[in-house]
Structures are given as structure tokens and as C-alpha cells.
Amino acid sequence: MPRMLPTRPDPDSPDSEKRVFKALERELPDDWVCIHARRFVLPATDVHSVKEGEIDFIVLHPKRGYVCLEVKGGRIERDENKAWYSTDRHGKRHSIKDPGRQAQNACRSIGNYLRGRIQGPPLHYSWGVVFPDITVESDLGPALPRGIIVDRNDMGSVAQQIEGLLDTYDAPVKEIPRNVKEAFVSALAPTFSLVPLLRERLDEEAAELVRLTEEQKNALDYCQENRRVAVQGGAGTGKTILAMEKARRLVEEGKSVLFLCFNIPLADSLREAAEGFTAMHFHRLCEEMAAEAGLDWDVPKDKDKEQAFWADEAPELLLKGLELKQEKRYDAVIIDEGQDFKLHWWAAVEELLADKDSSHLYVFHDPNQDIYDGELSSDLGLTRINLTWNCRNTVRIAEYCSDLLEQDAVTKAEAPPGIPVKEERVTGGDQMVEAVRKLLHHYINEEGISPERIVILTGRSLKRSPVYQAGKLGNHELVRLGNKKKPNSVLIETLHRFKGLESDIAIVCDIDRSSERFDPKILYVAASRAKHVLAVIEYEVAEDAGASPQDKAAVA
Fold this sequence. Notes:
Rossmann fold; 7-stranded mixed sheet; single chain
């Protein structure tokens, strides 16, 4: 049996073609190829137009080239004006095209199409017609000699008739190389699977993720009616978006507004988007207030003393500065990522309000992201409302993040499912670097994603991260937040420093669940930064006998 492409005729094909298909399938040798119903749209002589056509069968002989066959069923007629007609089994007469001309034109068009697509000399081509319902005794004029016709009586010996047709055209006899045969099939009957590029999918998903939920609208309305509110919600529930919107609305009401957070990169991002209000991180406020009041600001060089300074002395300097500069107060203070604020800082926050009775205080927080031992004070008199619907992440990312905390994901009904989270395990630093490099190559070079839409988040300090220490992955230089980006550079940052920010694609690396310092909250914070695509690469500690000293050191 020959190689039939497709393996069965199209159900909508005429009965005459189906019968010819079966005859060819039954009679042709195994090393022949038969392509059925090949439609084509090819460039015409005029470069601004195309030529459309279709041929019923293309038969590739393994040694003599290919034959294009046009099938015409029923009773066939041609009148004195060279008009062609067929009469079907119901007696209905139809006007048809000249089958010989159809086959000839299609054969020439396909021959032109194959040039440049098949290496080596062009294949010989021939054409003919098939009349499966009638007997043809002799030539049908000079344009259609009997030798290129397959009639009803030839259907049982169709291979022999095609050999005779090729003889009529003086087709050569020389084995066609296998690669040429495959190129012929690939050009005329290609198989393919078309999927949208990832970048196109991200753009489509984004529209579904940015729409405010009814829950978020209700939260804004509640904040409009109440001056002191704590808004609690998990990662991706839209806390920062709502906090920014509330700040803008307060500005429109003529209020002076201070927007605070703990994370420096988040504060930088908020400051760029601030419209009429002041946005900064908490310790910068402490430093500015100390400077305004003429107080000494001396950050210790000793690491332990430095930590104590940021935790205790800086907030004290803020309080002292406010005592000396009474005018440095605001009508409204908004805190984002409030779970990062330590309990004794809230006294300083309270002092930032111009009037304790009429000023506004709004705190947006997520206890699941408390990785700095923060605590919300119960003395602030805040009424509490909750956000539950994830509006940042695709469903698969939201479910991955919730599973880390053994919680249920709550996503919008119209939220895009997204692609599965990629999880990979490596046994050493070199493998970690290579895994991240391959992902970058896939996203940027194969999927067409802009490097600006990708962030690499490391679960280690940059000094201990083999990925950061690599400096460059492929053609992509790694740069930190705040540093000048170069063309094709990719952002890399610690997951702590990227807290509160987001990216279309996040590659989370240097994760070691076997470490005593591993906390699911840390991975939750990092993974929830990804809006559309998340990849998590973890260390898999090898058995002592199988791990090299370098590998052991890499995961220590």
C-alpha cells in the first residue's frame, strides 16, 4: 500500500474522488506516495496577486517524478465550443472546467512552487485526468490523448496506467533520493501544530487580571465611609492598587497624603506613580525627618548594631523630629505592606497624623507575607475588612502559592488559567545557573518575550547566589534594581528586595527546602510576584556518597 496523505479521503470529497482514492490505495506499490485534494495559493506572474487552484491527486513515483491527476465523475461531454459538462447519477447536467487544462496548470504551478524547496535538479512532472465512470476508447482530441487518461477500465490496474502515462511524457527512470522524497512531502503535505507565542498569550491574559472585582470596589467604598481601616488580603488581591487609588481620591478631596511602605524598590515604584501625594519607604522618612529637625543620623557600620539602629533608633529619631517639627503632619497616611512594620513603629505613624479625630489612616497588609516579624498594633482603632479574590496571578500560579501555605486559592471566574508552573530540581550551583540560562533562552529567543518582562528572584543573598555571581547568562547581562539597564539585560534581585513588586514572568531560583532557614512564606512571597509565568528551581540535596564537595557547598 502506498503512503496516502491524508490516510483517508475527506468526508466532503465527491464520491468519484473517494473511489479513485480507494483504487490508488489498493493498486499502487508501497514505495509510492499519493497526496489527495491539494489546494494551493501561490504567487502569480504579477507580484501583487496570487494564483489559486486545486488538484485532486498528486502521485509521486519513486523513480520517475510526480503526476498530477484531475478527477471528473459521471458522464462527460464537450461541445463544439469546447465547453465541458458532466452529468451526475441523478441526471443533472453541470458545467465543468476543462480537466486537462486544470491538471496541466496545477502541475506547472506546483513545479514552480517546488523550485528552491527541493535541493538538486527539479523533479520531472506529468499530468493526466481520471474518468472513473466512463470508458474512453481513443484520444479525446490533441489536447487529451488516451495515454494520459485513466478511465473506468483502468481502475483495476491504475499503477500500470500511470507508468504508461509517464512513458507518454518520456519520464526518466532514476531512483529519487530519500531526502528529496521527504522534501517533496514536507513541501506539499506539511504537518504542523500552531500555538500562540507566549508573549501574545500574556497580553490577552493581562486584560482579565486588571479589572477591579466587586470586592475591591466595595473595599474602596468602605474606605470612603471610614477614616481608619485595615485592609487585609493575600498576595495578588490588589492591595497596592487600591491603596494608590485611595491616595489619589484623598488628593482630589484636597487632603495632604503620605504613602509609606517598608521596601525601598517598592517605594521607588510608588513614587514614580504618585499623583499629588508623597510616597517613600519608612526609613527614608525617618532620615528626612531627622535632617529637618537637625538630629544626628549616624548608621553604625557594625552589622548587628546597624540592624538595631533600623529597628529602634530610626523610629525614635522620627518621633523626636515630629516633636520638633509639628508642621510635618499629614491629613492622611496610607501604609502598604503593613505586615512589615514592627509593633513599636506604629506610635511614630500615629504621630504623623495632623488631627487624631479627623485624619485618615489606612493600612494594607498580608500576614502571610510577614517575613520581618512585623505586627499590626491594636491601639490604632482600625476597623478590618478582607480581600479574598486573587487578581494578579493566573489560576495556576495562585493555586501554587496557596498550596505553599496549605490554603485554598480564590480566583475570579474569568481569570485565565495560565500555563502550568514549571518546577525543576538541580543538585549543584552549576546546574542552577544552566537551568536559569535555558529558561531565559526559551522565554526570550523562542517565545519572543522582552527581557523587561522577566525577573530572576534568588532565595539567597547575592553573594551566595551562583546565578547572580555568573554575571551573564548567554547574551543576557544580569542587573539589579536601580542599576542602569543595557539592551538585552535581565533583572535579578533577592526575593526580599523585590517584595511588593510584580513581573509578567518570574524565575525563582536558589530555593533549598532542606535548609533550616527555609520558610514557605519566603517562597510564597517570591512566587506570587509572577503574574503570568512562574518557574521555580530548587536544590535537591544529593546523598553524601553521590554529591561532590562543590555540590554540597552550593546547597549548604
